[in-house]
Amino acid sequence: MDHDQNFKNLILEYPEQALKLFAQEEIGEHDLIDARIIPIREEQLKTKLGDRYRKLDVPLLIEWPDGQREGILFILEEETLIRRFSIYRLAHYCLDLSELMETTRIVPVVIFLGSGNESLAHLQLGSDRQIYLDFRYLFCYLKKLNAADYMESNNIVARLNLPNMHYAATSRLSIYAAAQRGLAILETNPRMQIKYADFIDAYAALSEEELAEYNKRYIEKDEVIMGLAQILRQEGLTQGLEQGLEQGLEQGLEQGRQQECINLISRQLRRKLGIHPETEQALEILPQFSLDTLESMADALLDFENAADLQEWINQQT
Fold it and tell me: Residue 55's pLDDT is what?
């Protein structure tokens, strides 16, 4: 599963909610009112063209149009495996971007999806006399967030991530239902509902038995979830219809090419061998052959001298 892309889409489509969940220490309840959130280029400029570039997950620039506050650049990075995270790499990102954007107002944020030992959260460079570089970042360990605290949240990013949070094994279905209900209530665009229903399913990973139980306990009794299920079911039918039409079109094109090849072979054989009962009998079985076989026959018939040669070739194919 491409977790990076999943979270990149989530953050870019719900940036305000993402910042309020993942950067709570920096974003207040009213900090983003009238603010403009702008995604910026991920690939930083190189010093030399042959250099490798550093690619950020999601850099977001927050600007306030009234000019009373200077813009802040948030760098959000998702890490699936904690052991792969490098504070040194993140520090490089921030320094490079600070130089590129000519700002020191940068807030690095790391979202840890998996569990494990906490990563180094503080980097100091210096000597016994003085610290010359002091680097920190905000972090969110999703597995350490208590899902019960977010089951009624109005933050759609929190609701979609309920399956990624901490909860008792016995609460799996109720957590899944709360995520689905949040999606249905907080996102009214059917296209987005379909997209992020897949997000919930990917991280909840319910078994067939759990899905069957979920259908009985929630879909059949909860009108909100039932409405979402109908949208998803209709999407499934639409996709099935589109696939069927596409397959039917391909099949129709194949049959058309096959019939065109049969007509060509029939004209060539009658012209070369004449119209005889033996030739007509052989032509009757041409529809049984695949298009590839018919195309081979169109080449081979140039060497036929009589109906016996035609029959011999047909016998070899069957």
Answer: 55
Q: Helix 190-204 and helix 223-273: axis angle, to 10°? A: 100
Q: Which residues contact 177 (CB under 8 A, 6 or more apart)?
A: 214, 217, 218, 222, 225
Residue 100 belongs to some domain of the structure? yes
* DSSP code for 216: I
Residue 85 located in a structural domain: yes
Q: Which residue has the tokens 């999806």?
A: 113
- Please, which pLDDT band fits residue 262 given cuts at 50, 70 and 90? confident
Contact 8, 22 (CB under 8 A): no
3-class secondary-structure state, position 306: coil
Q: How many CB atoms lie within 10 A of CB 111?
A: 26
Sequence-separated (6 or more) residues with CB below 8 Å from residue 226? 219, 220
Domain boundary among 94, 120, 144: 144
Please answer whether residues 219 and 225 qualify as being in contact, where contact means their C-beta atoms are separated by less than 8 angstroms. yes
- Measured at the CA of 67, the angle between CA 64 and CA 70, to 5 degrees, comes to 70
Cβ count near 180 (within 10 Å): 28
d(C-alpha 169, C-alpha 292), whole Å:
56
User: Does some domain include residue 41?
Assistant: yes
For residue 189, which phi and psi values (nearest 5 degrees)?
-80, 115
Domain boundary among 124, 144, 164: 144
Range of the domain at 8: 1-144
Q: Is the residue at 203 inside a domain?
A: no
Tens-digit pLDDT profile for residues 27-42: 876 567 778 888 876 5
Q: Which residue has the tokens 């991280």?
A: 203
Question: Hey, what are 71's tokens?
Answer: 């813009």
Cβ neighbours of residue 167 closer than 8 Å, sequence gap 6 or more = 146, 147, 148, 175
Task: Report how many domains make up the chain.
Answer: 2
